[in-house]
Write the structure tokens for this entry.
Amino acid sequence: MNIVVIQLINYTLSFLMWMIVGRGFLTLIIGNRQNFMLLAFAKVTEPIYSVTRTILPFAKGRWVPVLSFILLALIRLAMIIILHPAAGR
């Protein structure tokens, strides 16, 4: 697989992980009030949360962001280990 594609996928997963962290911090700072920034973070992270809820049906409430972050980290780690150019040697 082309290294550019691997890096693009890796950076996208990293971006999504940082969006989850950002949404958590923003929620801590402003609470549950709706504003533009929180809605932007929610638009990006909500599809990830719904996939996590589908894969892990026991994920409820405050555990969904944590489990989503862990799931993305595991996917990134597996991708790096499996698709790393030196893995074929």
Q: What stands out?
A: The chain has one domain: 3-88.
